[in-house]
Write a structure and sequence with these properties.
Elements (H helix, E strand, L loop, with lengths): L12 H39 L1 H16 L2 H15 L6 H17 L2 E7 L8 E3 L2 E12 L3 H17 L4 E11 L2 E14 H6 L2
Antiparallel strand pairs: 1-3, 2-3, 3-5, 4-5
Length: about 200
Amino acid sequence: MFTEVPGWPDAPARVRVWRLFPLALPCFMVAGLLCWRWFVHETEVARTRAYFGDVIALQDELSALRLACSEQEAADLALAAAQARTLLAGGPDAAVARLEALRAASATLGWDLRFQTFDVDGGDGSVNDGVRFLPAVGKLDPAIPAPDALANLVRITELVFRDPIRMDLVRLQIRATDTGPGSVEMGLRIGTSVAHEEGTE
């Protein structure tokens, strides 16, 4: 039917084939494209996916995280983390500087404070989630009469809790005398940023 030549029922085969050519050419082109897609393109895609499998898996994981945490929640978490970092000393030297400030404040309140920090590099400082706690032991001796000394000792402990840098009072031992409080031993730990310490090395 497709090769019939109107008005020429006994047309030769060459003429009939030429009449079929405009219909067969698109079919051959579509068949060629399908073969290229199945045997060349899809094979190359599969090979590329196998080669970059880890990257694709990471992208899928990041997409899942984006779905699990909104941009607002991520921003809130970043802000909270930044605020938490402001409560940490920049390193052991900054922590010692805070202790020196506490010693000076104690002197104005009539207590002589001497403290000793432990060697962080020696393993005494505990590390947790990027925060290193520097332990310190302080010894206070009163330099004023008993009633004022006791009241001011309470003020010194309040200074520890109100310090802008994270400083924990982990132990407080008071030796009483007949005339009032004697020497006081105070155990402290100061939060320092591990990231800051690594960046300064």
